From TrEMBL:
Pfam families: Abhydrolase_1. The keyword Transferase does not apply. Residues 36-166 form the AB hydrolase-1 domain. This is Alpha/beta hydrolase.
């Protein structure tokens, strides 16, 4: 079997420098761009390996991985323009794109703003709140997460975040009245390390609360896929995919596993092989 080559590149400078990787030869056909937010390129290596027959692009979103860090909030518009700059730098025309989690929201923003950048758009479990029936409750939770992060630091905020993303169902009005989870439950310290560069919280509130351009997405026609994991139940990100699909007027597409099943690691087992088979089916439809 031929060993795949991976080359690393940078577009932009300083705080706007974005690092991306290319697996394979860009001259062989339409590249596949895989990304998330805040997950960086390393989280998509296993999924990329399922596509040895085509060029695969991964990247580190703004504020993550090999890019510059910071403390200011990052918007979906900034992320979308960063992806646009990477696609322009590839110089090979439109790409097939798979975005998961926050990356799915950023991909939808990119597709609405730069539809010529993409051939097929697969948005997997975008945690987008505006079209949900509990949008106000979700906004309140995000505001509380931002406050907790600013005042108490990473451990307490992450503990609340994990509890929230695992919540299965519509978020009730009294959700924030429950006791805050102990960070130790998740192997984290409650002590404030004074670091405020965590890209997860820098991406909030924009990735969660920014409205989706339904009209622009509807114009993509059958190029658009809204995907959710069969094991994700009624968690917010899976509900976000179904809500956007309903607003656009298409059926959501089922994928195996749950939110992060494209990546396998000891604490969070996944099924990258099965996930890759399903992604290939969707791209080849």
């Amino acid at each position: 079997m031929t060993e795949l080559t991976i080359s690393t590149h940078v577009v932009g400078e300083g705080q706007d420098a974005i690092t991306y990787d290319v697996q394979g030869d860009l001259s062989t056909g339409v590249p596949l761009f895989l990304f998330g937010a805040p997950m960086d390129a390393s989280g998509f290596r296993q999924l990329a390996e399922q596509f040895p027959d085509r060029a695969v692009v991964t990247y580190d979103p703004r504020g993550t991985g090999r890019n510059a860090t910071g403390v200011a909030d990052i918007t979906t518009a900034e992320h979308a323009e960063d992806v646009h700059r990477v696609i322009e730098a590839l110089g090979v025309g439109p790409v097939d794109a798979f975005g998961s989690s926050g990356g799915a929201v950023n991909l939808l923003t990119l597709a609405a703003r730069h539809p010529a950048d993409v051939r097929t758009v697969v948005a997997h479990e975008p945690p987008s709140a505006p079209l949900l029936p509990d949008a106000d409750e979700v906004r309140a939770v995000i505001s509380d997460l931002k406050r907790t992060y600013a005042e108490e630091g990473n451990g307490p905020a992450m503990a609340k975040f994990i509890g929230f993303v695992m919540y299965d169902g519509v978020v009730p009005a009294g959700y924030l009245e429950q006791p805050a989870p102990d960070p130790a439950m998740f192997g984290m310290s409650a002590e404030d390390d004074r670091d405020r560069t965590n890209p997860l919280f820098r991406n909030m509130p924009s990735i969660i609360v920014d409205p989706v351009d339904v009209d622009a997405l509807r114009g993509l026609g059958d190029r658009l896929v809204l995907a959710y994991g069969v094991e994700s139940g009624q968690t917010m990100a899976a509900r976000g995919a179904r809500a956007i699909a309903a607003a656009v007027g298409i059926e959501p597409t089922e994928f195996p596993g749950s939110h992060g099943s494209f990546h396998d690691e000891p604490m969070y087992p996944g099924i990258p092989v099965e996930f890759g088979v399903r992604l290939r089916e969707v791209l080849d439809r």
